[in-house]
Design a protein that fits this description.
alpha+beta; Agglutinin, subunit A; Hepatocyte Growth Factor; Phosphorylase Kinase, domain 1; 4 domains; 52 strands; globular; Ser/Thr_kinase_AS; Kinase-like_dom_sf; carbohydrate binding; kinase; nucleotide-binding
Length: about 750
């Protein structure tokens, strides 16, 4: 076998070098070792990584875990195609990194965090062991979507063993770990690398050896190495009881440790094998006692059994609906749907087929709705039945009380000058909501152009019955915008509430929204620099009114190009107040479990922790400012090194070439001093931490003067955004992330 053999230890292996059993690679600070080892009570040989100074249970990664070498004649090398491979003495390939692009001058290095990295001649990473873990989750390791950890089969066999699932991530914790807030969550962070979300874990003390270990018995252990006792000490263990073992009770059965018999069939189901069930062999699970009415073409309606404090199942189909009644309707539309759940940070979740691994918690968990035949629900008189009779989704009361006062479920809008229109009048104004008059479609519902009998042109927002937003946002928008009057805010003219119809009528903006000009290669030339600067100033003044000068202090929470409307003179008007929040007189920030907004515009503290304030809107304004300057959308922007405008803008600023950001279509006629000032201001607005951003009043001041503090990027450990949010835009990011243990 040709190649260069090496016997001494180093921290690298170069392309063409061959390391034999007994040769090792050691990380620079001697934290980890890569080489061949034999598990406890075994003579089989495996390539792996282990702690250098830990004598007990020290292996953290295994390459050829399911193809052992029977003797000590194995080798590992980086071949000509750039792949690290493991072979036995006969030259049989047992394991490979499977890098698909052939490279020259590749090297493999063992890092001090335990990561084995293969790089090409340009030092670009081709493969990392951290992205292909086995049974150990180490600090700084990134776990991407569908990333999995699999335990060893036994202490002497590292081949993949049992697994345990954590459940979905709902934006705050794993749905399958109800006590996560108390202990498990410490050190976990969720980031986005480009468009790829990932988890990582950081030890509180960098000098500590801390890890998450998936044991051969299927338990996930958080452990810390005790140097004095020379043993691993337990910080946390999951599963915490027998019910956490995957699908212990079989299909359509739930496990509850508080019951003397852990496993019980769901109401409406019976054991598939009574003999096995009675001797506590629950693996075959349960079956329906009565077939669903829809499967028998019966006219009777199926319904749902509500089960609280449940660990949600894996493999749900998620539907972008933010209303539980709409979620229920979605399930009823499909006879194969067996259950649904609604978690605001994940969305509507639907399951088909058998329901497996159901666990009832003492506290925490989520509510699951199981589809049952009508006869089952009627005979058992289940109190929590949710019938299939469609409810009037979003029903709420609204009346006029007193002279011009509007009341929405007890929230009174004093002195409102709103006009209440009849549905027939609105239909006539829009040509019966004809497609020819349709201006677009947002999260709220369709928007139409209309014309009143008096000749006034209007924009009509009709609440869609299938809207994922809808009722709360409708009420919110009326209560807020009825109080607001400013030249840079869109004006609400009236509303219509008849039966299930809920409609808002606005002043018509003939030039529609800013994004229709800004991101259109043909139309963007109509936005010269003077118009763009006026739009920037107008948006800032509108925000200043919301944050400081109106009777209410309002945080918009969804500032973006599509929510900036343009009148006939290209004056900007901030619109869409469905997500806005009112702040009290002394209130500076608030927190929410339901993060709403649009990916690419949300401040890190809001997307990650649900914290929002005036500084959150300032961040969105900064992103919008960069978009206006560049003529490109942050969400679709791509360069060789960056997946968004912000990183690219900082790069150009640091290189001393900020004017490279300016849209080529306006370069010749733009005022370079104004453009540079706007770039400078935008970078200050998009600082990672809210404390480093200016208030909107200072933004307005800086737009009018040259007095801007130096833009220096204040970096934090945060990356960008978490994706588990109610994105009201057109993002296709996943709504949940789950780990398989």
């Amino acid at each position: 076998m040709p190649g260069l053999f090496r016997s001494e230890s180093a921290n690298k292996i170069r392309q063409g070098e061959i390391l034999r059993d007994g040769d090792t690679i050691i990380s620079p600070k001697r934290n980890f070792i890569l080489g061949f080892f034999s598990p406890k009570n075994s003579k089989q040989r495996f390539l792996g990584i282990w702690y250098a100074d830990v004598q007990v249970d020290s292996v953290v990664w295994v390459a050829n875990r399911d193809k052992p070498i029977s003797d000590k004649n194995g080798i590992f090398t980086i071949e000509k195609n750039g792949n690290l491979v493991v072979k036995n003495g006969r030259g049989d390939l047992l394991w490979s990194t499977n890098v698909t692009v052939a490279t020259m001058n590749s090297t493999g290095s063992l890092m001090d965090n335990g990561n084995l990295v293969i790089v090409n001649g340009n030092n670009r990473a081709l493969w990392q062991s951290f992205q292909h873990p086995t049974d150990i989750f180490l600090p700084e390791m990134r776990v991407y979507m569908d990333g999995a950890f699999r335990s060893w089969t036994s202490e002497s066999d590292p081949s993949p063993g049992r697994c345990w699932r954590s459940g979905y991530w709902d934006g705050l914790l794993f749905t399958g770990v109800p006590n996560m807030k108390a202990a498990y969550l410490h050190g976990f962070k969720l980031y986005i690398d480009g468009n790829r979300p990932y988890f990582t874990y950081t030890a509180a003390d960098a000098s500590d050896l801390v890890r998450f270990h998936i044991s051969p018995t299927g338990y996930e252990l958080q452990q810390r190495w005790d140097k004095d006792k020379e043993q691993w000490t337990m910080i946390l263990s999951h599963p915490s009881d027998g019910c956490d073992l995957y699908n212990l009770c079989g299909n359509f059965a739930k496990c509850d440790v508080t019951n003397s018999q852990k496993c019980n069939c769901l109401d409406g189901f019976v054991p598939k094998n009574w003999g096995h069930w009675n001797v506590r062999n629950w693996s075959e699970g349960c079956v329906r006692r009565t077939e669903l009415e829809c499967r028998r073409n019966n006219t009777l309606r199926d319904g749902f059994l509500e089960i609280e404090r449940i660990k949600l199942l894996d493999f749900a189909d998620t539907v972008e609906i933010q209303n539980i009644d709409e979620c229920k309707s979605k399930c009823l539309e499909n006879c194969s749907c067996t259950a649904y759940a609604f978690v605001s940070a994940i969305n509507c979740m639907l399951w088909s087929g058998d329901l497996v691994d159901l666990q009832q918690f003492k506290e925490g968990g989520n509510t699951l709705y199981i589809c049952l035949a009508h006869s089952e629900l009627a005979s058992k008189r289940i109190n929590h039945m949710v019938t299939s009779e469609p409810m009037r989704s979003g029903e709420f009361s609204m009346d006029v009380s007193g002279a011009g006062d509007l009341n929405v479920e007890g929230h009174q809008v004093i002195g409102s000058e709103l006009t209440f229109f009849s549905f027939s009048g609105v239909a006539a104004a829009t040509g019966n909501f004809s497609n020819e008059n349709k201006l677009g479609h947002g999260g709220f519902g369709p928007v139409y152009k209309g014309k009143l009998q008096c000749g006034v042109e209007i924009a009509v927002k009709r609440l869609s019955r299938k809207s994922g937003q809808g009722v709360e946002e409708f009420k919110n928008e009326i209560m807020l915008i009825a109080k607001l009057q400013h030249r840079n805010l869109v004006r609400l003219l009236g509303c219509c509430i008849e039966g299930e119809e809920k409609i808002l009528l606005y002043e018509y903006m003939p030039n529609r929204s800013l994004d229709s000009f800004l991101f259109d290669l043909v139309k963007q030339v109509q936005l010269n620099w003077r118009k763009r600067f006026n739009i920037i100033e107008g948006i800032a003044r509108g925000l200043l009114y919301l944050h400081r000068d109106s009777r209410l202090r309002i945080i918009h929470r969804d500032l973006k190009a599509s929510n900036i409307l343009l009148d006939e003179e290209m004056n900007p008007k901030i619109s869409d107040f469905g997500m806005a929040r009112i702040f009290g007189g002394n209130q500076n920030e608030a927190n929410t479990n339901r993060v709403v907004g649009t990916y690419g515009y949300m401040a890190p503290e809001y997307a990650m922790d649900g914290l929002f304030s005036g500084k959150s809107d300032v961040y969105s304004f900064g992103v919008l400012l960069l978009e206006i300057i560049c003529g490109q959308s942050n969400r679709s922007f791509r360069s060789d090194e960056h997946s968004g405008i912000i990183g690219y803008a900082w790069e150009k600023w640091d290189e001393g070439r900020p004017m490279d950001l300016v849209d080529r279509s306006i370069w010749d006629e733009c005022q370079h001093d104004e453009a540079l000032r706007c770039i400078h201001l935008a970078l200050i607005c998009v600082q990672d931490m809210a404390v480093h951003r200016p208030s909107i009043s200072n933004v307005v001041l800086m737009l009018e003067t040259d007095n801007i503090r130096s833009a220096k990027r204040e970096r934090t450990r945060r990356r960008k955004l978490i994706p588990y949010l109610d994105d009201l835009g057109d993002s296709h990011l996943p709504r949940s992330i789950w780990l398989v243990f």
